[in-house]
Structures are given as structure tokens and as C-alpha cells.
Amino acid sequence: MLQLSLSWLGLGLPAASPWLLLLLVGASWLLARFLARAYAFYDNCYRLRCFPRPPKRHWFWGHLGQVPPTEQGLRDITQLVTTYPQGFMVWQGPIIPLIILCHPDIVRVVTNASAAIAPKAPFFYNSLKLWLGDGLLLSAGDKWSSHRRMLTPAFHFNILKPYMKIFNDSVNILHAKWQRMALEGTIRLDMFEHISLMTLDSLQKCIFSFDSHCQEKPSEYIATILELSALTTKRRDQLFLHMDFLYYLTPDGKRFRRACRLVHDFTDAVIQERHRTLSDHSIDDFLKNKAKTKTLDFIDVLLLTKDEDGKKLSDEDIRAEADTFMFEGHDTTASGLSWVLYNLAKHPEYQERCRREVQELLKDREPKEMEWDDLAQLPFLTMCIKESLRLHPPVTIVSRRCTQDILLPDGRVIPKGVVCVINIFGTHHNPSVWPDPEVYDPFRFDPENIKKRSPLAFIPFSAGPRNCIGQTFAMNEMKVVLALTLLRFRILPDDAEPRRKPELILRAEGGLWLRVEPLSAGPQ
What we know:
The chain has one domain (43-518): CATH 1.10.630.10.
């Protein structure tokens, strides 16, 4: 009978226990895994040699910390894009390569890849998982594809059209507050603070049909949303706290958990209340009642939507999508609006031209509020918004992880497993794409000039199958708010020049301060 001998290890027969064999098998498996990963790493290093890279900051940290999230960091990105206009590679620590994409020809290949080939990189988004669940931002695979198809009708113009009244009402509240503050003349305001509350006010009404009056008095729910955003930003800059088990032991992690519970409880309560309403009425009666108010909110759409097999979203999925829309919708729109007001304050000639366009559109109308058909009648104001989104994109980067090799137009290959960072800010400031990229020039978006450029040169809402599903909603709100603001106020630059600060969205250090001067009695 064949006997197992471990004498070559210096172990006699008694030592040849099942536990020792299990240990040897486990060690062999770990060694094989290590060798496979080491081979894959060195193979990737060899294949990545075709991507240029700036000098490393440190032998261990690589390029980590070399481009800080500050004004200087954005200037450094602009310089890197000028030096490497087709993109470049950086090391996050000793073993994590990132490909930075900043040219439309390269960006197109990755963004146009299917969501299965280039899903979002989990490292950049996992810190939001407890808050947002498996909503469109964080889900992947078949679940993401199914939800994307189911949610697309929620952003059809028939759903968006009634939101115009909500946008008008929310900006009227903002302007009435500004009028009260400006009784003695010009006032100085942090645009982010005021416009963030206004966008949150609009979103609560559009998503939940709930009016918290958050622009006029404190709201626990709104304060919690702002706290979650601040905690997420703070955590992003603390590398070791990206591990959940460590983060949730810290005071900030415990605050984050409490805040998530409060936000989830609010959303769950709205969902259950709406379920009760639906159970008391037929769907036809429910829709007839909604038709009287002329608004079908986001929760209604989520509750009524079905996939191809007639399956509805679970309550957990509805909560995730509603919380995701609330998170993605308030800060990005507030950033876009704040920066376009800043750019128009710095360029009074463009501001005055926008104002005349709005005055001409609304000259025979009382009250002077925006209607759906007006949105297409503001070509120059739209050009000004787009140029501001180019110069100051609210979201400066998005990331994708390649699940298979991706061939670029110039013959280079991005290896499987590598994370690509689509640098929206870098693409928008690439001098090989945009002449004089630091100059604010709305005429770049004249229809004739647009024809000369790649569609991927301008990507404030990302691009491809995972682009922003709510971009029409956001553009509509920005047009309404900007048009009525310029109709009623003159926006003037502050004495101090703002210093840009890329966080979850593009902010300004210490706030984005502008001066506001009333032109009329405000909303009628």
C-alpha cells in the first residue's frame, strides 16, 4: 500500500495529519495565486510602457498626492494635459496603475464600450454604497441594464414638462429672499450655499412631492443630505478609511451610519405612504388624481414602472434610485449654476446679452415665469451655460475598469483589469481640442463651431451608455434659474478671485462669493 512520506520535509509519519496536509494545500494555493497576480502585474507593466507618465513623486507612493484637490492641482492637470494631450499613466502607490484619458478620440473608445466591458471602477464609488445602495450610480451588470431601461421613461419630456412650475416656484422663493436681503442695495452672497438649498428644495418636490420649506427654515432631512455629502468628501481624502470596517469604527463613520438611517427612513416612509394610496385606488384613479395636479413625481414613476417581464422594482430598489437622484441632482446643478453666474459676472457683456434675450422672450408676459416652450428660445443663454460647463465641469472625473483588453485608435492597448480615469476637466482644458482653453467664450457653442468638433470634446454629463440619465432635467433647471435670475438681478464679481476646489463636485475654497444687485421688484 502506497504511504505518504513527508521525510523530505524532516517530518515523520505521525506529523502527516490531515491538518498539515490542509495547511500545505492552502499554502500552495496562496503561492499559486500570488505568482499568478505577480505575473499579471509584470505583464501589465510591460504592456503599459506605451503610455507616457510624469516623473514619480515617490518610490513607494508613486504619483499619489502629486495632484492635490486644490486650485494648484487643477493647474497641474492643465499642464499635464498640455504635455500629454493623448493621455498618460500614473501610479497610485507601488502597484496600482491608472490611465488618465483627456482626448476625445481616446475617451470615445472607453465611454462607448458596453457597461459590461467598462463598468464603473468600484474603488471610486464604494464609499457611497451604504447611502445609495444599488441605484444607477453604483449598480452593475444585468441589474444596471434593467434599471436603466426602466428609469429612462422617468425623464421623458411628458414627465419633465410639469416640473417647470416647481423650478419657477423654487427660484421665486430664492429671489424673494434675495430681495429682502438687498433692501439697502447690493449684497454679497455665497452662491453655493443659496443655490444648493434651492436645488434641494426643487428635488424634494420633484422626487417626493414634499415641501420642506428648506430655503426659509431649517430642515432635518436637508441638513442630513448635506452632512452625508460632506462626510463622503472628507473620507475620500483619507486613504486608509476607504476600508469600511475601519471607517465605521471612527466618529465620522458612526455619524455617516446615523445619517444614512435618517435619510432611508424618510424615503421609506414616502414609499409606504404611496403604497397605501395605490392600494386604496385603482391605478387609473391614481393617475387621474395625479393628472389634476399635473405632476407625476419620481416616486410615482418608480412605483408604476415594470420591466419587459412585468416585474416591478422592489421597495429597496426604489429607495436606492430616489436617494441616488437626490444625491446626484442637487450638488451638480448647484455647481453648474454657481459657476455660470461667476462667469457671467466676470463678462458683463455676455450677461447683458443673455438678459436682453430673456427680456425679449418674456416682455408681454405676467407673471414673468418660464414655460416649457421657452427652453428652446434661449440660444445664447444656452451657449453661456455650456461654455461654463466646459470651463468649470461640476464633475471633474469619472472612472471605468476594463474587464477585457481595449484597443485604442492609435494601436495601443489598455490591458484587462486596469482602471481608466476619464478626466472631464482635462478633456475640456486640452489645448489640442480647445484653442485658448482658459478663455470663457460662449461662441464655441455656436452651431457652426459645434460641427467642427468631436461630440466627445464636451462631456460634462459623461458619455456613452453610462452617461447621466438626468442631464435634460439638469439643463432645464439651469435655464429656468439663470433666465429669471438675470431678469431680476445684476450679478457682479467679488473682490477676491475664487480658488477652485474639486471635491465630489467642483466647488470653491471658502465658497463662491458674488455680489447681487436687484433690477426689479422680483417675482410677481
